[in-house]
Amino acid sequence: MKICVVGAGYVGLVSAAILADWQHNVVCVDHNEQKIEDLLAGKLPIFEPGLQELVELNRRRQYLRFTAEMAEALRGCEMIIVAVGTPPAENGHPNLEDFWAVVKSFRENVGNNVIVMIKSTVPVGTGEAVSLYLNEKVSHTFSVVSAPEFLRQGTAVHDFLHPDRLVVGCMSPEIREQMKELFQPLDCPKVFTDWHSAEMIKYASNSFLALKISYINTIANLCEAVGGNIQDVAAAVGLDHRIGQAYLKPGVGFGGSCLAKDTQGLIAQGEVHGVNVWMFKDVLEVNYEQRVHIVQRLTEVLGNLKGRKIAILGLAFKANTDDLRDAPSVTIIAQIIKLGGLVKVYDPVVDSSSLPNIISVSTADNPYAACQGVDAVIVLTEWEEFLDLDLKRLQKSMNAPVFIDGRYLFERKRLLEAGFFLPERPSSSEWPVVQSMISAR
């Protein structure tokens, strides 16, 4: 099948590379000419394990090519996959400006009986609206399919090839059979439904994951207040098969381009239709408060942050990606700088130049250099390499041994044995001790 993938981001690139690997003829188009130039030069615009190899292999096999010309990409295609971004607007609704600009180009540039597969996350009702628009006053037929993606950054290639389920919304039995054939290589439950339900499944899935993270972070805050061990609590709760271990990981909260955006989108749709969605508003509030809580811990133990040196280990919103969209690190660093703190950062993948221009930090080539002479270290990304750190060496290089593990990456006992102070709630009896250490240094 000749397939055009519109959008060379995480979803578009992964989809294009794997469909090409399945020996479809795929052209990936993006209006960002620099991005296409980089791809043609063999440089991917994103970091995603396994993707570089797939792209290179299928370019060599001539199953995959890239262009910035929409008309060229659409010429002769049998299926179009729409994978453009739909970032949140100020009112919480997805911004569909780019999405509709792409869709409107289809009527002028494609032939008859073309399948339009929507992978972009769009409000419920969009698939129907696209079908009505494309099939209005034209001599040829478009078949619209809603096929939401459930890819996790850092494991996107694996997730595409080994999904928990495939969701396809379409209205034609004939198109349903074609989708079964297209996705035949996938060994997973295949859910065929209508457009509206497929679109809602995406929002319902991501908002539930967001809910689960905010839930365990609320429990973590309670554990901190009453003296419970949140890691033991989360592990035991997750052993209940009705609940499961996934996404019961306490810490600084979620970031990235999906969970917050889709939860905001669900809230916006609920308000439009008069449905009370207060629970999802609380999910987002809890998530933001986790970031604020990190800075509160810092100020409660260090006092005035003016001139204080703070090391940040990890910038990406999660491990195995270079994505800074809605990353907790951006919010936390901005707050520390606003309070007068001096920030030094280390991330094995993310270049600090990717941070917003308003954020000024110094960078280090390794974690030890980042922590040299600082008053506190904060772990904000769960990079596996951090687990191998010599914590005693790290502690000895610091001005004050304040350690905030924003990802619960380390066992508490291991940190204490290395000589770190772990700031928690204001009632901590250790605080006067560490404050005297800070004053003495």
Say which CATH homologous superfamily of the largest domain is assigned: NAD(P)-binding Rossmann-like Domain
CATH class label of the largest domain: Alpha Beta
Which structural class best describes the helix and strand composition?
alpha/beta
Distance between the termini: 68 Å
CA-atom Rg in angstroms = 24 Å
The stretches of 5 or more residues where confidence is low (pLDDT under 50) are 425-434
Kindly state the percentage of residues in helix. 40-55%
The fold-level CATH name of the largest domain is: Rossmann fold
What is the count of β-strands? 13
Q: How many helices in DSSP terms? A: 17
Question: How many domains, as an integer?
Answer: 2
**Largest beta sheet, briefly?**
6 strands, parallel
* Envelope shape: globular
> Beta-strand level of the residues, as a percent range?
5-15%
- The largest sheet has its strands arranged as 3-2-1-4-5-6
Descriptive key words:
2 domains; 13 strands; EC 1.1.1.22; Rossmann fold; five-stranded parallel β-sheet; 441 residues; oxidoreductase
